[in-house]
């Protein structure tokens, strides 16, 4: 007989305890901290509604300060205990993962720490998750990865779901950065050059156009796809190698986006249906303090259905909003912030911007006048902990595209700076906003990001922060009723209050900085502000259904068909959605759908359908220049329809309003530059600046050069070009010499040699002067045109009076809704092509 007396006893598995709901589970958790004695009303409301929801994809909205993390953890633990399911809770950074695990400890919920890489993770933690003994806490990058940590799951919980857009799309995005080592950017740009028009190539090689993103016609350009395939096939850099491996054989489903900073290859929607760790889970739960439209989540995660559950609760804390750009120049705004910086303690600020470049430029601009000089912190500095920033006494934390997923409560940070609009944070969004006039498509996500960003420093009901809004694009957005009226009432109230205070600076410029300093330093002063805030009445606003959200499902289905090379279904999907998109405001979206349909038709080899789709896209009068190029390339046509020229000119003038500002002093400053320059004919440099601004007012792309022997100013339009030689400083008794005349006559050759897109259009050399050729010059004047200074000054004054009227008439409107009306208004204001043509139509003659 064997002796069993000294052998270890077997452990009996504990009987599973089933709880009827996450709410009941909370009440039975034995090790809750004292701070978690009860559920808040919004938490309980959301948990009850979730319990009865069996949908595959759920979106939970709990505003800042209502305990979103606890809700996610309770759902995770309830699912794990009830069914023995494997549940993973995902966040943006390791620092946020630690924050979640601290919250789990306060609730008495055990978690498995799956952050970090395979070398830093403890095998025991992996085992706890694999056996469903604990809820896994990890980062998005550990799921959206070719070798993910979270291989299998039953439930995935995405915290700060909007903030993960770049992680999701990035898995299928090849991004070639210009500042990367070696010359890969230049090599790829050379390879795709045949797919760019001359105008596009000029833009993407012009450092002043750093915000512009062009769409390259790579698929229809012979040899381009094989060329880029050869380049990427030999790359071993992880940022290229892994995403290229995923899209290489589905390149037909990808767009190529090009700017001065990067070249991007990516599908229009991330094909998450091909990523088993994401696609095969039973349920996905997306959590956010501000959900916005469900369509944005569908686009970001490549899903076709989602059920929102929203907690009804006001935004926490007080935000004292200021928009100094209403009356201050860019430099004056920087000076204002520098004055505030000097007066406050501790000196800490959070700077949010849509891109790294904008964040860097804003930091450089505002920090230049700060005393003492602030330290600059980036996302990399706070990946593991916020302490490097929160322990600093003089620092600015600069984050790009990160409007969610950072909490700076109380005195850790009271000053928040938001630079430029949040409508577009990646290359595709910037291209769609600027070229396809899809402000309405981006409006809801812009609003969502702004709400999220404004709440980063107000984390509970008693918290407060000063929010300073900077940048012309953000000023344009905040004065657009369609955007502002969709904000929660308390934020509308704060914006209205902020606009009113910012307007004070028109009369008393120093008062704005004094207000901000007082709000940050004086509690009694804040009480006065709170009273004035409560006096503001906001009319209730019921936001209408977002038609762009309704199109999100079609976008996902289109991408899946294109990815699977089912071009027939992709074409059908795109045509059907284009036909359903018939609101005037949706013109840009409709044009985009017809363009997507043309891509599917091209891959089908159906040239007739492709040209038909492009014609329908062009008929929307959006992105007219690009559509005209594609149509002429496909149909081998050489001439441009005059109606298309008018549309292109209208878009160009509209873009000047966007650039110079629908609101604020920048617009009038540009007109003042024009008038001041034109008033100084004796100073050729200043007069040339005046000519430059005048050309921009007509919608021209203007080149102003200072070298000898080149045109002083060139006005380039889609169908014609004017090369201007300025001789405004000639004395009244002087004359144009043979050298002057011959120099002007040679300008068309210079234009052809230096501006590629002018090669197929007429180039007219213009001499601007009040004097005439001398006898020696007479034989050489044939083919030259003449404009006298008085006429140019009159035209400048006339334009300067017309543009403000147009600005006032169309401010706050969407181009897609009013493009026909705007084109008519341009003609009525004599800003059309005929005006410029007649203005520069007088041949140069001898003095009579």
Automatic annotation (TrEMBL):
GO terms for biological process: nucleobase-containing compound metabolic process. InterPro entries: ATP-dep_Helicase_C, DEAD/DEAH_box_helicase_dom, Helicase_ATP-bd, P-loop_NTPase. The keyword Magnesium does not apply. Keywords: ATP-binding, Helicase, Hydrolase, Nucleotide-binding. GO terms for molecular function: ATP binding; helicase activity; hydrolase activity, acting on acid anhydrides, in phosphorus-containing anhydrides; nucleic acid binding. Residues 49-309 form the Helicase ATP-binding domain. Gene3D superfamilies: P-loop containing nucleotide triphosphate hydrolases (3.40.50.300). SMART domains: DEXDc, HELICc2. Signal peptide: none annotated. It comes from the Bacteria. This is DEAD/DEAH box helicase. It comes from Nitrospira tepida.
């Amino acid at each position: 007989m064997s002796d069993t007396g000294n052998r270890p006893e077997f452990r009996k598995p504990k009987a599973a305890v089933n709880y009827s709901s996450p709410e009941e589970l909370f009440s039975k958790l034995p090790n809750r901290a004292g701070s978690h004695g009860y559920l808040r009303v919004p938490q309980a409301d959301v948990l009850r509604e979730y319990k009865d929801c069996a949908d595959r994809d759920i979106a939970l909205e709990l505003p800042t300060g209502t305990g979103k993390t606890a809700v996610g953890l309770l759902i995770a633990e309830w699912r794990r205990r009830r069914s023995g399911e494997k549940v993973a809770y995902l966040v943006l950074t390791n620092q946020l993962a630690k924050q979640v695990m601290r919250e789990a400890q306060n609730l008495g919920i055990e978690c498995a720490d799956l952050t970090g890489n395979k070398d830093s993770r403890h095998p025991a933690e992996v085992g706890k998750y694999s056996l469903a003994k604990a809820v896994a806490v990890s980062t998005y990058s550990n799921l959206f990865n070719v070798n993910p940590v979270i291989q299998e799951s039953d439930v995935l919980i995405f915290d700060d779901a909007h903030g993960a857009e770049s992680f999701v799309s990035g898995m299928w995005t090849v991004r070639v950065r210009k500042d990367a080592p070696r010359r890969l950017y230049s090599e790829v740009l050379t390879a795709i050059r045949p797919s760019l028009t001359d105008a596009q190539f000029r833009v993407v090689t012009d450092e002043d156009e750093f915000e512009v993103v062009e769409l390259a016609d790579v698929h229809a350009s012979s040899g381009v796809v094989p060329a880029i395939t050869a380049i990427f096939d030999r790359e071993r850099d992880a940022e290229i190698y892994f995403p290229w491996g995923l899209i290489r054989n589905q390149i037909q489903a990808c767009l190529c986006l090009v700017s001065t900073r990067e070249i991007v290859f990516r599908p229009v929607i991330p094909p998450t249906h091909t990523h088993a760790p994401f696609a095969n889970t039973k349920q996905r739960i997306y959590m956010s303090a501000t959900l916005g439209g469900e369509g944005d989540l569908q686009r970001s995660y490549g899903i076709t259905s989602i059920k929102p559950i929203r907690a009804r609760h006001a935004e926490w804390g007080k935000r004292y909003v200021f928009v100094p750009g209403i009356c201050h120049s860019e430099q004056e705004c920087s000076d204002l912030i520098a004055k505030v910086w000097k007066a406050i303690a501790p000196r800490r600020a959070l700077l949010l911007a849509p891109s790294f470049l904008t964040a860097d430029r804003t930091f450089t601009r505002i920090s230049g006048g700060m005393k003492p000089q602030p330290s600059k912190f980036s996302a990399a500095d706070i990946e593991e902990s916020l302490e490097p920033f929160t322990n600093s006494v003089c620092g600015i934390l600069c984050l790009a595209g990160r409007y969610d997923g950072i909490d700076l409560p109380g005195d850790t940070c009271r000053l928040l700076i938001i630079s430029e609009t949040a409508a577009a944070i990646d290359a595709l969004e910037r291209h769609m906003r600027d070229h396809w006039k899809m402000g309405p498509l981006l409006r809801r996500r812009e609003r969502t990001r702004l709400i999220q960003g404004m709440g980063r420093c107000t984390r509970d009901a008693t918290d407060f922060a000063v929010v300073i809004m900077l940048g012309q694009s953000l000023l344009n957005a905040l004065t657009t009723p369609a955007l502002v009226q969709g904000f929660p009432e308390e934020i509308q109230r704060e914006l209205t209050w902020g606009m009113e205070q910012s307007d004070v600076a028109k009369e008393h410029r120093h008062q704005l900085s004094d207000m901000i300093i007082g709000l940050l330093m004086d509690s009694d002063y804040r009480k006065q502000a709170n009273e004035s805030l409560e006096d503001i009445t906001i009319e209730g606003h019921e936001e209408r259904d977002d038609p762009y959200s309704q199109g999100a499902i079609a976008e996902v289905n289109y991408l899946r068909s294109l990815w699977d090379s089912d071009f027939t279904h992709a074409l059908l999907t795109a045509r059907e959605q284009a036909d359903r998109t018939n609101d005037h405001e949706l013109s840009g979206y409709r044009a985009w759908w017809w363009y997507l349909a043309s891509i599917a038709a091209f891959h089908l080899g159906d040239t007739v359908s492709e040209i038909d789709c492009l014609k329908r896209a062009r008929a929307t009068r959006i992105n007219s220049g690009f559509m005209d190029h594609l149509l002429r390339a496909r149909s081998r046509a050489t001439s441009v329809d005059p109606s298309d020229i008018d549309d292109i000119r209208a878009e160009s003038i509209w873009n000047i309003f966007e650039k110079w500002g629908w609101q604020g002093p920048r617009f009038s400053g540009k007109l003042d530059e024009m008038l001041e320059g034109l008033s100084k004919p004796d100073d050729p440099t200043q007069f040339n600046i005046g000519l430059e601004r005048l050309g921009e007012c007509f919608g021209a792309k203007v080149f102003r050069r200072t070298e000898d022997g080149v045109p002083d100013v060139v006005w380039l339009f889609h169908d014609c070009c004017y090369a201007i030689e300025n001789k405004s400083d000639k004395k009244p008794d002087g004359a144009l010499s043979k050298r002057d005349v011959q120099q002007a006559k040679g300008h068309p050759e210079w234009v052809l040699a230096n501006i590629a897109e002018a090669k197929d259009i007429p180039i007219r050399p213009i001499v601007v002067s009040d004097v005439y050729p001398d006898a020696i010059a007479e034989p050489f004047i044939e083919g030259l045109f003449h404009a006298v200074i008085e006429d140019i000054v009159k035209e400048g004054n006339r334009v300067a009076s017309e543009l403000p009227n147009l600005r006032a008439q169309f401010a706050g409107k969407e181009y897609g809704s009013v493009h026909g009306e705007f084109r008519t208004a341009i003609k009525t204001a004599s800003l059309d092509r005929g005006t410029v043509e007649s203005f520069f139509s007088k041949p140069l003659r001898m003095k009579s």
